[in-house]
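General statements about sequence and structure are easier to judge against a single worked case. In the encoding step, the backbone of a single protein was reduced to a row of integers, each denoting a local shape. The record that follows shows the chain in one-letter code together with its fold in token form.
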Amino acid sequence: MHYDPIKRTLGSFFNKTPRLRILFYNLLDLLLLRSWHIRKTLRLWSDQRGAKPAEALDAGCGFGQYSYRLVKMCHGGHVTGVDVKEEQMADCNNFFAKLGLADRASFQVADLTTYQRHEAYDLILSVDVMEHIEADQEVFRNFSHSLRPGGLLLISTPSDKGGSDADEHHHADGHIHGFIDEHVRDGYNIDDITQKLHNAGFSRVEAAYSYGTPGHISWILSMKWPISLLNVSKAFFIILPLYYILTFPLCLILNWADVAGTHASGTGLIVKALK
């Protein structure tokens, strides 16, 4: 199963005007549970810093959803977004320029296995990126090198308790494929990612499960079923609004429950690492 074709279709529609794109960001903030967890941690980070300007790296920024939020939280600082997709980086630069934010956010093509800026950032955000990168230890070392002392690395990634799909299946190539074929690993073991971050130079690492029982149900309703149907036929776009009108209220409640609670296990991880 592939997200990218669906992303491109949605992106082409919501990218017609800046207002539509901001609406898209707001819809993603409500719909995607990982965004709920990220927003909660970013609010705590921002409150602790106060009004001091901050330099932030959105590592694997994609559409720029989180970069847009970070611009508001950096209090006059700067957000750098990097991704391997040249078209998306050009698109983000164009969008933020239209908003008059070109001096507050800039985007460039970069490979996280080689990208580093010596003690340049107060915050590095990596949302659903590390599961796509085989050479994760190199990336973690680059993150550590690029953070200022006391800086925060915030990661959202699938765990090994199901990762992105409980319905894995074996392909003829000998690999296990789940809901998202682009992943190079099924998910992180909580102790493994903690140790890797310590090895990379981080002094304190806190990792907690997300997508517990309520979050996993929400993900099935809000993401897995719609994306699966859209991969079968784009005609499902026609009834997608009605589908979400029916399921969205329940998903909001489930997302709130997932963020408000703690989970002994879950298919996602929220990892905070301090340099």
Remarks:
- The chain has one domain: 12-210+265-274.
